[in-house]
Amino acid sequence: MPKRPVPPLNDEDIALFRDTIGCVDPLTVDFLPPEGPSRSHRRILETAHFSDADINPLSDAGAEPIEQGEFLSYLRPDTAPNILRKLKRGQFSVVASLDLHGMTVDAARSAIHRFFQAERQEIRCCVRLVHGKGNRSERQIPVLKQMVNHWLPQRDDVVAFCSAPPHDGGTGALYVLLKRR
To answer: pTM above the 0.70 mark?
Structure first.
């Protein structure tokens, strides 16, 4: 599509713009660093090396085996069924994402706890957890997927979750709806 020339701004438009945005301070940085993980993701990765069992007592016992490619979903019992339908349809905006690829089970548990603490807001919010499909694990068993499916219902802040649509990770990722603080 050919670009249309942009007409120059007149003095009235410039004055309106300046009145709208108010006073600003110029940036003192000469360059922008390349885009990396979000602040909350970096903070999680920096602190995910130790266990926080006292703060995050999620049990591993009784985790049900999961097949590769299996679609996951959960809805807290005291929640309206239309919430899960909306989540499956992608009607909640994803505000943040956490990639668990390459983490151990303990590191993933800790990272999820810290990520949820950082992302919970005053309103319900939807986040994406990328647990992977288990293609590179021993016997191609999706270990993190199995554990995430077992941990999330144990958390009081999780309202619902479901496997993401194919364009957002498919059965290797989850949309998780968190309740307000």
So the answer is: no
φ/ψ region of 53 (left if φ > 0, alpha if ψ in -120 to 50, else beta) reads alpha
CA distance 144 to 68: 11
User: Residues 46-70: pLDDT tens digits?
Assistant: 544 444 444 556 666 666 767 777 8
Question: Is the pLDDT score of 173 beyond 90?
Answer: yes
Domain positions in the chain are: 72-181
Per-position DSSP letters for 70-125, written without gaps between them: ---EEE-TTS-HHHHHHHHTT-S-EEEEEE-TT--HHHHHHHHHHHHHHH--SS-E
CATH architecture for segment(s) 72-181: 2-Layer Sandwich (3.30)
Cβ contacts of 174-177, under 8 Å, gap ≥ 24: 174/72, 174/128, 174/129, 174/131, 174/148, 175/87, 175/90, 175/92, 175/94, 175/126, 175/127, 175/128, 176/126, 176/127, 176/128, 176/129, 176/152, 177/83, 177/87, 177/92, 177/124, 177/125, 177/126
Cα separation, 84 vs 73, whole angstroms: 8
